[in-house]
Write a structure and sequence with these properties.
This protein is an alpha/beta fold and about 300 residues long. It is about 25% helix and about 25% strand. The protein is built from seven helices and 13 strands. The strands form two sheets. Strands 1, 2, 3, 4, 6, 7, 8, 9, 10, 11 and 12 form an eleven-stranded mixed beta sheet that branches. The protein has a two-stranded antiparallel ribbon with strand order 5-13. The protein is globular.
Amino acid sequence: MVKPTLLVLAAGLGSRYGGLKQMVPVGPHGATLIDYSVFDALRSGFGRLVFVIRRDIEEPFKQTFGARFEKQAPVQYIFQELGDVPAGFSVPAGRTKPWGTGHAILSTAGVIHEPFGVVNGDDLYGVHSLRALGEQLGSGSPDYAMVGFILRNTLSRTGTVARGVCHVNPEGYLSRVTEMTSLRMHGADAAYTDHQGQVQVLNGGTIVSMNLWGFNPGVFGYLRKQFAAFLEARGQEAGAEFFIPTAVNNLVEQGRERCRVLETPDRWCGMTCREDHAEVVDYIRAAIESGTYPGDLWG
């Protein structure tokens, strides 16, 4: 049985953070969130690493991660290019923003030929989450998979967040993901302000998506068609992005694929803004003290 590949999306601009947060140390010996995600993945059955990056960060990225990761598993780097669009389409003048997570995944179509998991480079999902995904991908099932988090385990103490609220059928498969924005902590729940200016409360036990997905290579054909449709409809909008939850929603609602929801008890940890850094450092310190991670990941 071929081990699944871990695909790390690390081409984001980090505009809200104000820098290359993918390479910001959060643990001992300069360990980053990507280090901890890779560590969790390799001990959960993943056998290869593919990183989607931008050309302008290639040198610092490889200097930061190359030597230590290449000792652990085969590594490949893929560039997410704005100009990588289907024939007949063009990039709007002045656009610098990447095309989104769906496009980032599509950029790896030529190098991934086995089941694969997808993680964001600035998020840490936890070993239970990666283990559940690794087991699903290694099971031989043709189903897609999404790791579902408990909403209260994903909220930031420093600001608001966007989360994909999951609608799960009785068999444990995803029916759809509904994007909710500007969610803030509200006791054990979350609150947001609706279009009428009224404060609404969302149950903290709600299952949400944190973009931790599992796919088989058949997804690339779907993404090609959907990306072309996206460009046809919204390609001239300066900030429009082709997001993977939208693509999965379309496939599920059309009955083309099934997506198993794997619920996890793990607490999400990540950096959206600079104010999140101190909280992430505290999280890692506590995880080391509890024995979840060694003090020196690669020592």
